[in-house]
Structure formats: C-alpha cells, structure tokens
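agent> Task received from the user: take the single chain below, predict its 3D structure, and emit structure tokens. No templates, no multimer pairing.
agent> Plan: (1) validate residues, (2) run structure prediction, (3) serialize to tokens, (4) report one or two observations.
agent> Step 1 OK, no nonstandard residues flagged.
tool_call: predict_structure(input=
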Amino acid sequence: MSKFGSASGTQKKAGEDTMEDLEAVNLAADWADISQGLRKDLGHQLHSQWIKPIQVGGLDKETGTLALYLPTQFSADWVKDRFSDRLGLAWKIACSDVRRVEIEVHPGRRQVADLRFHTDGRRPANDGADSSMMTIAADTIGDAGFTSSVGLDPTLTFGAFVTGEANVLACNAAQRMAAPDKPQFSPLYLKGATGQGKTHLLHAIGHNFLTAHPRSRIFYCSAERFMVEFVQALKSNQMLEFKARLRSFDLLLVDDIQFIIGKASAQEELLYTIDALLAEGKRLVFAADRAPQALDGVEPRLLSRLSMGLVADIQGADIELRNKILHSKLTKFAPLEVPEDVLDFLARTITRNIRELVGGLNKLIAYAQLTGQEVSLQLAEEQLTDILSANRRRITIDEIQRTVCQFYRIDRSEMSSKRRARAVVRPRQVAMYLSKVLTPRSYPEIGRKFGGRDHSTVIHAVRLIEDLRQRDADMDGDVRSLLRQLES
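)
tool_result: status=success, residues=488
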C-alpha cells in the first residue's frame, strides 16, 4: 500500500512541478510583451536602466499578487515610486490572474559589502559576487588569480578588450592608469554610451592595478550604490567611519556617475573624497554615458574635479571593430564554425552597442547547439528578430548619395550623370558600393537610383571598391569614414 501511495505522491508532485513550470513560462512570455511595450513608451535608456533588470517572481493565486524583483533597494524604490501603477495596469491586461504587483528586492540577493570601519585595517569578509560595491585588498588574491569573489569579473581584462579606432584612446588611458608608474593624469573619466565597454575597462584597470600593486586597496562601486551607502551611513550615524574607510583606498572606481545627479549631500562627500585622494597621489576613475559638462544638476566644483584629468571618449564601434569583436568571441565556441556572411550580417545590423552584438551571437550559437542546426544567415534572421528590429536603422540610397557627395565635394546630380571624369566616377562607385553594403536593395534597384545604370555596372563598382580597399589605404580610410557617418 505504501508502495502505491508513494508512486501516487510522486506523480502528483511531478504534475505540480509541471504546472509550476508552465505558469513560469506563461508569466515570462507575458513579461516579454509588457517589457517590449514599456521600451517603446519610455525609450531605450530609461527602459534599460530601470525596467530591464526586473525579474518576475511567483504569482499568489489566492490574492492575485505578483512579485517583481529588482537587485537593489534603491532601484526597487525608484521603480515603485514611478512605475508601480503602470506595471500593475499592464499586468492586469496581460494576465487576468494578476490583480496587483509588489515591487521589492530579490530575497536571494546577497547583501553588499559591509562598509563599517575596522581599526585593524583589514576589510570585512565579502564573498558576494553580485554585490555592486566591493572592497578589494591583497588578502583576497589567491595563487589561481582573480575571481568574482573580489568584485571583479575575471573575464573583463585588457587581454579580452578588443580595440579599434573608436576605443583605442580610452583603452590606452586605462592601461596607463593601472600601470606601476604614477599616471600623468587623475582622475580618468571614461565617457561612452551604454554597452560600449566602460565597465569592462573599469574591471580591467582593477585587475592590472592589483597585479602591479599587490598590497593596494581598491574601491569599486556604482554611483547608485555610493549614494545608498552614504544615506545608510547618515541614518546610522556612521559618517566618520564611512569617510575614513572611503579615503583609505589607493584606487577608486565609480561606474555610472551620471546617477549621482541632484544628490547634493552625496555630491559634496564625493567632492571631498576626490580632493583627499588626489592630495595623497591616489588614482581615481569614473565612467558615465555623457561628458562631465553634460551632467545636469551637478555642482560646478564637482564638475571641475571630474574633468580636470583626462576625459577619454569611447565612440560607437564601427563595422570593422564589431567584426573583430565577433571573431574574438568565437574562440570560446571552438570547434563550432560560424560562416563569415553571418558574422558580417551581425556586424552590419547590430550597431547600437557591443553588449547587444555579443548577446546576439551568443543567442544564435546557443539556439543552433540546442536544436542541432547549423549556424546560417537564415537562422540568424529568424532567431534574432527582436535584436535586429531594435537595431535596424533604415539607411536609404538617397542618404548615401547625399553623404558621399558632401564628403567628396561634388554636386548631387553627378550620381546620375553620364560624366566619366575620375573625380566623379570614383565617388559614384563608392556610393554604389555603400548602397549594396548598407541597404537590402538589389543590383538592378541600385542601378536605377544611379541614373538608370545596368546592374552589371553596379556589380563592377562593388567589386572594384572591395579590391581598392584591400590595396589602397586612402580608399579604405574614405570608406571607413563614410560608414561611420552613415551608421551614427
């Protein structure tokens, strides 16, 4: 009897697990639709910062309450204050079982590092890999090297950072900041759009600095976490300890400094910290999505400190850099092969930021491996529709012709004229080449936009410019410049 009872219980448990899995899948699908709608309403930047990190928890069927989790109390409070009603309404429309939403910190989230001052000079124990504010000291380094337990991602090193014209200045400046010799400038301010490599360079600086200065102390945090810890220190009357600990570090790394906007007391404390560390010859690195002068609501004194060293701009990656990055990521998938036309398609199409580019490659390869299919252009177009549609900015042949004519300083009418002068023919061929690379138009369609020329003329132009780019550095430079202009 117990035997049959046990089997029945097992079957019941399996059924319950299956139902829970199905509910989780349905909730995830609903959230994907809601999130996509919010991205259209709020814009990419606001959505990426506050909505995208939300994780869907369980649904209490009795009360109709759905839990939505965020990684920090600060972000949970921020989203709750501004988007609670909108999220609740969206969920009620998407899922009839949901009557209300609760926005809170994920219960499994590890607490950030304890910032209390220790008179013996040693940092408190901290093994939280997902903490956004970390203290790093020599006693956390083992023979095996750096691990995530010290707050630095072991994969984000200078060796893994692919450089090109868009980011070489920032990378070289970051390496100088981490070198054994005293840097020529401090602070270093890394400026770049979301997903272009700022955080990667911050982690890389931390790794190299610890290698060069094994007994050094590093402080790495986001501006958001800096403010949270500052407020907690105020409430608990521990400001003296907070200040003493903050100013004991040899290297200060602060990410997303734009989020310290409008916080007067936190700005003042950061200002005093910068002055104290600079006076002692310490090193400081900040990262933000805009230049110091574009930080609204920041005290002029703090702005002057942020921009007094070197402001290194990370431009959007051009197509050559995007291709290099994709090829560098393929090494971890060996011996799997990805056709060159697929890599070229991803590099040409996913242009907004490097994070999305690498994410698209990872998703494509994972799908191919899990389904046993070969990676192909068709598979990429089918499986990456969301990423591709979000990135695809439709560049027209008219736009290409206008840009090429401005670049070479010729009249727009020359794109359709019958003139055969070299000063006119070469720009026209470049425009045909770019039309084939940047638009989905066929050879005959391109020919019609260039004065009704035959498709064979367009094919000849495309092949000629491809060949010239390999042999002529000036031509290659011209095409690179035009690609950057058209894709920006």
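agent> Step 4: summary for the user.
The CA atoms of residues 465 and 472 lie 10 Å apart.
agent> Done.
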